[in-house]
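Hey, quick one: can you model this chain's 3D structure?
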Amino acid sequence: MAAELQCRRATLADREDVLNIITPFEGRDYLPSLYNHMIADPSFVGVLGELDGEVVAFAGAWVINDGTTMMTKGSRVKEGLQGKGVYARLWRYLCDTIRDSAPGLKYEEFTTNVHNPLLHRPASKRKYAELYRMPIRCYSLQRELIRKRTFPPSGRVQEMEVEDLRQILSDKQLSAVLFPRRLVIDWHVYLPIVENVDIIKAQGTYVTKTGDEGLRTTELITFGDWYQCEEYLAYSMDVFGKVDDTASLSEHFHMHAKKAMELHDGDVRFLIFIEPELLDVTDSACRLLHFLPSHFFTTHCVWLIREI
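Sure thing. Here's the predicted structure for all 308 residues.
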């Protein structure tokens, strides 16, 4: 059946056909909210597969790390065709399409959660290596309490332009302090290099920082990205750097909470990606803001990588 698959680039006009392939993630699917943005993004390549004129599979990837890595996202295959070679055929087409403009492509990355059976299959362990793993804290936003909560302005926590990240990543010493292992933003694991800034900028990321005047004094950076689910706004926060006190981190989270409330007037769920050494201070900061602990998602996010 896979031999009959017709593959081509996905377009904005294919949106409804792609979304009708399958409804995954128990209503937490990000593709309905992000499809148009992904397809319009020049750093993203989306492809689909058709059988007898019906769209039965979709695969896509951002090309990151200076053209060496494809970060797959949103892939899906119609029920009844899974495990029959459809995705393998489409994946090869995706790789070939990306290599037309990125001949240095070497790796595929993808994101999953710690409960995915794929992590424990011997065949998968031979094929993929674990690139990175981060704990996730999940919270629900109590809107009225956020509105009432105020912080004495410290003058050190402020919004930062994504473009400023270019200067930070150019400073190897500062970059190594803030991002000693990897740079994780919106479920993507990046190398901390300036070539990724335009890709990050295109996502519409909201950034806050702690520091005195000038970027060289930056001590803590938090990134915020979001998508609309069926029942709520999912807002992801990524935290990097040094946290000296709970109040400073709470001020960051408060700014992101207000940003989320501007974006959506209903239920907001936070997913905070945090380095293990910052878990305790993160929990304390969230308690100050009366964030409600939730279990709507996994406890850890895992990124896998393989050479292609």
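One thing worth noting: The chain has a mean pLDDT of 90.
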